[in-house]
Design a protein that fits this description.
about 375 residues; alpha/beta; seven-stranded mixed sheet; binds pyridoxal-5'-phosphate
Length: about 375
């Protein structure tokens, strides 16, 4: 069997044609494809405004400049990629790591405990982990009751839905971000976006994306005013051409991911392999995470991980190492938070391959190989 990674892009002739057409056009960057991509993302997510940027980390950084002030305390999750909490540090604000729930998302009840304890907390950065949209009812309640800023990191969750609420709609948050890295649901190579329903936030983000520069009618034609310390956070037109073409196929990609997830759910039913959650109609399944009590099976995560990779050619991933225990965070005094669910989750979690092009034969092989390894230990 050829190597099976945990995630992979799906590129077809239509994608190639869209990119080529833009490469042959007048604009490689700052052209019309960017606005077109943003408009389509608004239509898809039901958000009023969208700003496409060079990657998800830049999306988080720019949103944090707008939402936070120096020394603001921000509740966030240890179960994410580094960028979520790094973006809080970029603006000299202070992440407070809160334990996760059994579904891998930040525990919003514990967030409320923190908010009650410390009314000076200013914001919540919630990740819809693996594509499982964060509880919107609770988000709405926290925003209203405690008057906090909320950012939804939906890097895993484009296409996820909770009732009528779509990931990125910002129905109960100030901003939402996406990443279009190749392992995500749809790709622009590198790329990201921020959605919001606030014109004020949108205007600030537009400024920050391009060096804090504005042009007004009062200026001479060649003049511009720099009113903010901005960045170059721009995405190119040919990346947006790819994004537009990918967006057309997004729902098909997600349907295939859900099919794969359902098949894993069935295969692991009543076994030692426990899905993080079974399909409930909400998740857009960026990741398919299982938990295994390796100790009880007289094995270790490393042994299973290595065997699947070396003997069976299957690439697993681990999402995530707790951010608060990273050396840099430890150097800032983090790492000793009371996060028993996260600590146990990290011991047990494995992300299995899931992406639209994963074949039925490959998925059967993954399931069979995992059981083969575990059965040898039972
Ligand atoms: C939850 C989460 N947030 C943010 C990011 C950052 O996105 P990017 O890689 O596009 O910078 C990622 C990327 O892996 C992610 O998984």
């Amino acid at each position: 069997m050829n190597f099976i990674p945990y995630g992979k892009q799906s590129i077809d002739q239509h994608d190639l044609d869209s990119v080529t057409e833009t490469l042959e056009s007048d604009f490689l960057t700052t052209g019309p494809k960017i606005k077109q991509f943003e408009t389509e993302l608004c239509a898809y997510t039901n958000a009023k405004y969208c700003i496409a940027v060079s990657n998800g980390t830049v999306a988080l950084h720019l949103a944090s400049i707008v939402l936070l002030n120096k020394d603001d305390k921000v509740l966030t999750t240890p179960n994410s990629f580094l960028s979520t909490s790094n973006s809080i540090l970029y603006v000299n604000a202070k992440p407070i790591f809160v334990d996760i729930s059994k579904d891998g998302n930040i525990d919003l009840d514990l967030c409320e405990v923190e908010l009650k304890k410390d009314p000076s907390i200013k914001a919540l950065y919630a990740v819809s982990f693996s594509g499982n949209l964060i509880n919107q009812k609770k988000l709405k309640y926290l925003k209203k009751t405690y008057n906090i800023k909320i950012l939804e990191d939906n890097a895993h969750a484009i296409g996820a839905q909770d009732g009528d609420i779509k990931a990125g709609s910002c129905a109960n948050s100030d901003c939402s971000i996406f990443s279009f890295h190749p392992v995500k649901h749809m790709t622009t190579g590198e790329g990201g976006a921020i959605t919001t329903n606030s014109k004020e936030i949108y205007d600030k983000l537009i400024l920050l994306r391009t060096h804090g520069m504005t042009k007004t009618n009062e200026l001479l034609p060649w003049e511009y005013n720099m009113t903010e310390l901005g960045f170059n956070g721009r995405i190119t037109d040919f990346q947006c051409a790819l994004g537009l073409s990918q967006l057309k196929k997004l729902d098909t990609f997600i349907s295939r991911r859900i099919e794969i997830a359902k098949k894993y759910d069935q295969a692991f039913n009543n076994s030692v392999v426990k899905p993080l959650y079974t399909f409930d109609g909400k998740s857009s399944y960026h990741l398919y995470v299982v938990q295994i009590s390796f100790e009880k099976l007289n094995t270790t995560k490393l042994e299973v991980y290595n065997k699947l990779r070396e003997k069976y050619n299957i690439g697993l991933q681990i999402h995530y190492m707790p951010i608060n225990k990273q050396p840099y965070y430890r150097s800032l005094g983090y790492g000793r938070e009371n996060t028993p669910i996260m600590d146990n989750y990290y011991k047990e979690c494995l992300s299995l391959p899931i992406y639209p092009k994963l074949s039925v034969k490959e998925q059967d092989y993954i399931i069979q190989s995992l059981f083969e390894i575990l059965n040898a230990k039972l």
